[in-house]
Automatic annotation (TrEMBL):
Residue stretches making up the Aminopeptidase N-like N-terminal domain: 50-219
Catalyzed reactions: Release of an N-terminal amino acid, Xaa-|-Yaa- from a peptide, amide or arylamide. Xaa is preferably Ala, but may be most amino acids including Pro (slow action). When a terminal hydrophobic residue is followed by a prolyl residue, the two may be released as an intact Xaa-Pro dipeptide
Protein's name according to its UniProt entry: Aminopeptidase N
EC number(s) per entry: 3.4.11.2
Lineage of the species this protein comes from: Bacteria, Bacillati, Actinomycetota, Actinomycetes, Kitasatosporales
A Pfam family hit: Peptidase_M1
UniProt KW Signal keyword: yes
Family: Belongs to the peptidase M1 family.
Residue stretches spanning the membrane: none
Length: 497
């Protein structure tokens, strides 16, 4: 029970507030978070970004980064102030050409107060000049800026932007990007999209990258170092740009043998998911000590560790599948992560079948049989796993089981129509698990709420009758391990920090 006390000062303040015209009183600070319950302070309220223009200079010897970010946005409320997610040292902020006050708050909030309040539904241009050494910054006890022997990499999930550009850091606010980076001659800068131009002057080379399709901030990447860059075009006409650190050592051959198949795999996945949604594809392998890969849009990040045991096309398939499921169609909230990871894992199952190393049904039977009813695997709900379990193996494997169960329920004709239709239905936008259930029912003409509840939301192993109805094995007896399983299992921690 909360008691409300009224004091004379409060009465006076209330009277003064009533005297303020409604038009002025309506201005209020934008929320310090976009409203995602998994990450309450990620993203921000009060505005929607349409474009980021980042003009940067980087010195690999000292890890010093300086830059100017120009952010084009539109207000979604009457704003007296607003937040950006950012960690580096800010020198100046301008809003619509006029200098603005700024301060920091919490772990990663830059609070901007414009000279004049901003009315709802009006365009706004924010310019932030900044500098700093990203590797010296941390938030919540971690960093997503990874130093390499010859530079650095920004790539992580669900956040990485704070260490190198100010943003509205949540998938719910996607934008286009221009990323221009000057580095000393001999060093290269790699980012998303297409390389528009390069220029050299006085010992520095500037690389200008453009992403002309909406992109989530965590999918925006920056790699700085010495790379061997390969270019080509897939048989289906998709330009491919790949890059490999020049000091990958023993992992170099396996990395190239895997990532150089990007064009082939993009074309193959297009047969299931529809036309490739972006203007370029590719990946890069920097010399980092991280162990994960990430579907950074059009330019996938791969750790050398992914290729420590030889070539690994399965992880390439996984990350490229995300270009449709996760990048073009992004989550509305982080609880919707199953749409990303379940379908990327299922793409690996399809590749296994294509390679003759185990059908999707055999993989589903094996996963189901491998986890007894008391295995904590079944307590994770892929449809809403919670922030602490967002990247658990169950989101991937039980998530793929749900997709196989859906396929068995609605039949191949409707299923493969759905696989292609979903990325087109929500191209370059955001969608939730609930949106997917609705869409699957529309495509199939069947009620599917119970099926999705069983496989995505119940924290128990589906009973044997339910499993049999989806053609899954009821016990581990006689369930042979598919030949592809070890390769697929090796990517279970593909997004682990």
């Amino acid at each position: 029970m909360h008691r409300r006390f009224t004091v004379p000062g409060a009465v006076a303040a209330a009277s003064l507030l009533l005297a303020i015209p409604a038009s002025a009183a309506s201005f209020s600070p934008g929320a310090p978070g976009i409203g995602d319950p998994y990450y309450p302070y990620y993203g921000n309220g009060g505005y929607d970004v349409s474009h980021y223009d980042l003009r940067l200079t980087y010195q690999p010897a000292t890890d010093e980064l300086s830059g100017t970010a120009t952010i084009s946005a539109r207000t979604t409320q009457d704003l007296s102030s607003f937040d950006l997610d950012f960690l580096l040292d800010v020198d100046e902020v301008r809003v619509n050409g006029v200098t603005a006050r700024f301060t920091t708050s919490g772990e990663h909030e830059l609070v901007v107060t414009p000279r004049q309040p901003l009315a709802e539904d009006t365009p706004v241009t924010v310019v932030v000049r900044y500098h700093g050494v990203p590797s010296t910054k941390s938030a919540y006890g971690f960093t997503t800026w990874h130093r390499t022997p010859d530079g650095a990499v920004a790539a992580d999930e669900p956040e990485s932007a704070w260490w190198w550009f100010p943003s509205n850091d949540h998938p719910g606010d996607k934008a286009t990007f221009d990323v221009s980076v000057a580095v000393p001659d001999g060093t290269q800068a790699i980012s998303n999209g297409t390389l528009v131009s390069t220029s050299s002057q006085l010992g520095w080379t500037r690389y200008n990258w453009r992403q002309n399709k909406p992109q989530a901030t965590y999918l925006t990447t920056l790699a700085l170092g010495r790379f061997d860059i390969t270019t080509g075009t897939s048989e289906g006409g998709v330009p491919v740009i790949n890059a490999y650190s020049k000091d990958l050592g023993d992992n170099d051959g396996a990395a190239r043998a895997s990532v150089e198949r990007t064009g082939e795999l993009v074309d193959w996945l297009s047969g299931y998911f529809g036309p490739y949604p972006f203007d370029s594809a590719g990946g890069y392998v920097p010399n980092t000590t991280t162990g994960y890969a990430l579907e950074t849009q059009t330019r996938v990040y791969y750790s050398p560790a992914q290729f420590a045991n030889g070539s690994n096309t399965s992880v390439v398939v996984h990350e490229l599948a995300h270009q449709w499921y996760g990048d073009s169609v992004s989550v509305k909230g982080w609880k919707d992560i199953w749409i990303n990871e379940g379908f990327a894992r299922y793409a690996q199952w399809l590749w296994s079948e294509h390679e003759g190393e185990g059908t999707t049904q055999q993989l589903a039977d094996y996963v189901y049989a491998s986890h007894p009813a008391d295995d904590p695997f079944w307590t994770v709900k892929p449809g809403d796993p919670g922030a602490d379990h967002q990247f658990d193996a169950a989101v991937y494997d039980r998530g793929a089981l749900a997709i196989q169960a859906l396929r068995n329920e609605i039949g191949d004709t409707a299923f493969f129509r759905l696989l292609k239709g979903w990325p087109q239905q929500h191209a370059y936008g955001n969608a939730s698990v609930a949106d997917f259930v609705t869409y699957a029912e529309q495509v199939s003409g069947k009620p599917l709420a119970a099926l999705f509840d069983t496989w995505l939301f119940q924290p128990v192993k589906p009973a044997a009758p339910a499993a049999r109805a989806a053609s899954f094995a009821a016990s581990p007896a006689g369930v042979e391990q598919p030949r592809s399983w070890k390769k697929i299992e090796a990517t279970n921690d593909v997004h682990g920090r």
